[in-house]
Each structure stands twice: as C-alpha cells, then as structure tokens.
Amino acid sequence: ASPLAVVAGLGHAARRGVVIRNVECVEKAAKLTMVVFDKTGTLTVGRPEVVEVKAYGLPEDQLLALAAAAEKRSEHPIARSIVEAASRAGAEPPELESFTPIPGQGVVAVVSGRTVAVGNEKLMKGFEVDTSRAEKDAERLRELGATIVYVAVDGQLAGILAVADKPRPHAREVIETLRRMGLRVAMLTGDNRTTAHAVARQLGIDHVIAEASPEDKADEIRRLQRSGEVVAMVGDGVNDAASLAQADVGIAMGRGTDIAKEAGDIVLVRDDLRGVITAIRAARGIYRLIK
Ligand code: ADP
Ligand code: MG
C-alpha cells in the first residue's frame, strides 16, 4: 500500500466536499454496519416554521409575542421560527428580563414580570404544568410530523405552537443507497416519539430512537456498539457533539455548529447529505489499498 494512494483517495473525497480529518477513521468507515442520523438540521433542513397556533384564553398574537420574547436570545432553530412568526403576525414582543436555556427541552424566561416557559413536554413536566387541554390538538399535529412547542405563563398552559421542518434534499435517496450498500439506518432525536416516527416514515427509516437527551444520544450509540454494530453518527448540533465523539465515525454537517464539526472525524463541507455516501465509498476504496 502506497501512502501516496491514500493521500490521493483523501484528496479525491475532499474535492467532493468530504473532509476526512483523521486517517484512523478510514478503517472504521470501511467496516461500518450502521449509520445513525440526528433529525433536526441533519435529516431535515433545520429551518422550521410555525404552521399552527392554538391559544387558550388569550389572543394568538399575544401568545406569540410572549413566546417570542422568551426565545429572543435562544439560538435553537425552533426559537428562531417563533421569533419570525411573531414578527410576521405583527406581534410586539414585550421586554425580556431574564432567560435560561434548558438544553433538549426549551427555555424559561421572565417577561414583563411573568414567568414564561417555552418548550417540550419534558419542560412542562418539570414545571408541573398541566398540558391535558392541548393533547388532542398536539397528537393530531404530531402525526403530521410537526413538533409541538408548549407555552406556559406563570405555571399555566397558555397555548401550543406547531413547528414543522422540511426533509433535506436527497434524504430519502441517501437512506435508500446506504441500505443498498448493506448498512442499517436509524434516526436519533430529542424530539417527541410520534413526531419522530412520522418524519422517519416519510424518509423510509424504520429504526427510530426518540426523546433522547444529548447524553442519552451518546448512550444509545454506546449501546449499539456493545451489540456489535460499527456505527457512524451524522449530526449538526451542540446536542450531537457527545454522540459524534462516541461513534466509531462522527460525520458533521458543514453548516452545523463549530462544536459538532470539532467532534466529527469527517466534515461534509458542502452541507450535502450525499457526502455520507461519498465518505463511505472513499473509505472503502482507501481501505482496500491499505489492508
Ligand atoms: P434534535 O435532537 O431534534 O436536534 P434537541 O435536542 O435540540 O433536538 O431538542 C430536543 C427537543 O427540545 C426539541 O425537539 C424541542 O421540542 C425542544 N427544544 C429544545 N430547545 C428548544 C427551544 N429553544 N424552544 C423550544 N423547544 C426547544
Ligand atoms: Mg440537530
């Protein structure tokens, strides 16, 4: 095996937007048995939009204004979608007094003297907010693949926002190709189970691990490895850094966060999911030369 052939292989991949940051991962990438994808921002474009608003006992624009005020300083894509929806509705967000992000759950903020919690079911449970009033609407929207964001004001449920995100270009085709290459494919997400299954169904994925916290994500990868899988994890976010590091091969999306890119062995600089295929084919080619 000539080192020059290896360098040529790495260069070939790099010209296709796939940067293999360490040669040690090439053998693992050639021997993969499973590829695990994060959902939000990886299998979906990560630019969610608010598609429905249900307010309980207050006007919809007021609900949006409160939620937008609370989310103003969050960098989560869901937060951005809420701030945009409020501005589209012409709702003026009141002043934000304090703000605490809760990773994998949402935010808690003080807005005009009121405590506003915006996030998922887990966040509501933590604050003992009764969400039963919204459950029928929430389940209907989840079955369409939407993510439900609950808004509580001073401990009372004030409404829900349904947020939806489009699949990334080529997602379905990449998943099909991986399967044809003999690999198992799974989705790993912090989002709700029903929502995750709805999105997975649209993409042709049948193995779904949902409602996973950032630490759970790394544990799930470890569990798969212990069951004998050689695992690649594909992700984009801060919440994926631990699982990218845990995986045999971490693949970071090019427009993902710096933390994800640093944790990745391979970076898809063109931010194109087809890079996953290119990376694995390149690794198989290089490995044939060096083994
Ligand atoms: P994913 O694994 O899908 O990329 P995250 O781990 O970032 O998702 O978040 C898990 C869930 O927590 C999200 O699906 C969302 O319901 C909720 N969440 C996290 N941050 C926020 C936020 N700033 N506002 C509202 N909901 C949030
Ligand atoms: Mg993500």
UniProtKB/TrEMBL annotation:
Top-rank lineage group of the source organism: Archaea
Subcellular location(s) of the protein: Endomembrane system
Family from the record:
Belongs to the cation transport ATPase (P-type) (TC 3.A.3) family. Type IB subfamily.
This one is known as Heavy metal translocating P-type ATPase
Starting at the broadest rank, the lineage of the source organism is: Archaea, Thermoproteota, Thermoprotei, Desulfurococcales, Pyrodictiaceae
